[in-house]
């Protein structure tokens, strides 16, 4: 899977550059956004949109959502090449959510460098992030693969439904962050992941199924696969944040103790609060509820989480989710090689170290 991701990433970036060039000029603006009423300012668009977006993209990211879309098409027996622009839809959406999420969380670091709002300002970051929710819709409008009208409409309706649920999940996460004394359970946390992270995965699978004209039962099965895999990915991300802070992960690209500093209600934290002795549980909640934390307090919180066996619990839960995901594609009549990649991907999202 790592080789597949590495192979496709340059191609994905080239295709994104067709949608939003690294160098913006008047010709691009008129061809993409229509004739100006008066006069566009290419320099302004360059500085406020293209530069911050490509700054983020060039920092890394695996482009796994775009690549997973292409693997799905291969599984459906389609040549993925004509659909490369569609593969960029979930990837651009994902990066837009990252930019906005970092502003909302007050994040300091993203992919090893200062978060975009610290580089360009909150106004530029929010506008660029929001633009990335809408730019991909132009792909469906321009329709490079010449899809039938009913499939394009189905894709629009699916995107609107899933994007609304994405913001539902983000709203839950923000509320838990702001109201740090709120107690939530494991099921509420997983539901938040299903919305915030799972919906982007569902977009990947459903978009591939729609453009490949798959029947409803196949679309539903691959959507469930992608949702469960995405939740497993999020739990894996939470584990990596802790292990990175404990010095056990690779170059994760986030601040030391990032989730603790932000008071995140992760699966590890919820488990630790439920399973620790009352004094440790209360202390962990106190650290999470503080506006700021010292490095010593971060280490103390990590020690409580590790001592409660929460890392092992979260990893086991992620593996269970990955196993559930695999069951959704095993019974489908898909191309064998691509099916193997889909099965392998569910293991990659849990076992990765960056």
Describe the structure.
By secondary structure, this protein is mostly helical. The protein has one domain (2-351): Orthogonal Bundle (Farnesyl Diphosphate Synthase). The chain is 74% helix and 1% strand. The chain is built from 18 helices and two strands. It has helices spanning 2-19, 26-33, 42-58, 64-75, 84-105, 116-120, 122-134, 137-142, 149-178, 186-196, 198-211, 216-245, 258-261, 267-275, 278-289, 295-307, 310-330, 336-351; strands at residues 109-110, 113-114. Strands 1-2 form a two-stranded antiparallel sheet. β1 (109-110) and β2 form a beta hairpin. α11 (198-211) packs antiparallel against α12. The radius of gyration is 21 Å and the shape is globular.
Largest sheet: 2 strands, antiparallel
- Number of helices, where a helix is a run of at least 4 consecutive DSSP H or I residues: 18
Structural class: mainly alpha
Number of domains: 1
| Element pattern in H and E | HHHHHEEHHHHHHHHHHHHH
CATH homologous superfamily caption: Farnesyl Diphosphate Synthase
Spatial ordering of strands, largest sheet: 1-2
Q: How much strand?
A: under 5%
Average pLDDT metric: 92
Number of strands: 2
According to CATH, what is the class? Mainly Alpha
Might you state the CATH topology name?
Farnesyl Diphosphate Synthase
CATH architecture: Orthogonal Bundle
**In angstroms, what separates the terminal alpha carbons?**
14 Å
DSSP helix fraction: over 70%
Which residues sit in consecutive blocks of at least 5 with pLDDT less than 50?
A: none
């Amino acid at each position: 899977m790592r080789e597949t991701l590495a192979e496709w990433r340059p191609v994905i970036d080239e295709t994104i550059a067709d949608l939003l060039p690294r160098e913006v000029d008047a010709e691009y603006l008129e061809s993409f956004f229509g004739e100006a009423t008066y006069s566009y300012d290419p320099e302004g668009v360059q500085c406020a949109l293209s530069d911050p977006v490509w700054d983020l993209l060039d920092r890394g990211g695996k482009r796994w959502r775009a690549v997973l879309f292409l693997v799905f098409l291969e599984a459906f027996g389609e040549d993925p090449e004509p659909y490369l622009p569609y593969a960029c839809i979930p990837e651009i959406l994902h990066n837009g959510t990252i930019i906005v999420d970092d502003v909302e969380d007050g994040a300091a670091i993203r992919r090893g460098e200062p978060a975009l709002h610290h580089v360009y300002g909150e106004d530029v970051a929010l506008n660029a992030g929001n633009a990335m929710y809408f730019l991909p819709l132009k792909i469906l409008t321009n329709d490079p693969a010449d899809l039938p009208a009913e499939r394009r409409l189905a894709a629009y309706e699916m995107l609107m439904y899933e994007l609304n649920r994405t913001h539902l999940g983000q709203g839950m996460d923000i509320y838990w962050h702001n109201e740090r004394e709120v107690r939530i359970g494991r099921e509420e946390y997983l539901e938040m992941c299903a919305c915030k992270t799972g919906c982007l995965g569902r977009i990947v699978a459903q978009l591939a199924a729609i453009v490949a004209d798959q029947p409803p039962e196949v679309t539903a099965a691959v959507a469930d696969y992608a949702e469960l895999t995405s939740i497993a990915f999020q739990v894996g991300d939470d584990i990596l944040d802790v292990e990175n802070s404990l010095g056990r992960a690779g170059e994760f690209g986030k601040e030391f103790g990032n989730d603790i500093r932000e008071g995140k209600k992760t699966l590890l934290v919820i488990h630790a609060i439920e399973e620790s002795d009352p004094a440790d549980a209360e202390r962990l909640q106190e650290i999470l509820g503080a506006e700021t934390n010292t490095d010593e307090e971060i280490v103390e919180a990590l020690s409580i989480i590790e001592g409660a066996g929460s890392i092992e619990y979260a990893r086991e839960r992620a593996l269970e989710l990955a196993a559930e995901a695999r069951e959704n594609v095993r019974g489908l009549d898909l191309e064998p090689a691509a099916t193997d990649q889909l099965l392998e991907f569910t293991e990659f999202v849990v076992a990765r170290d960056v």
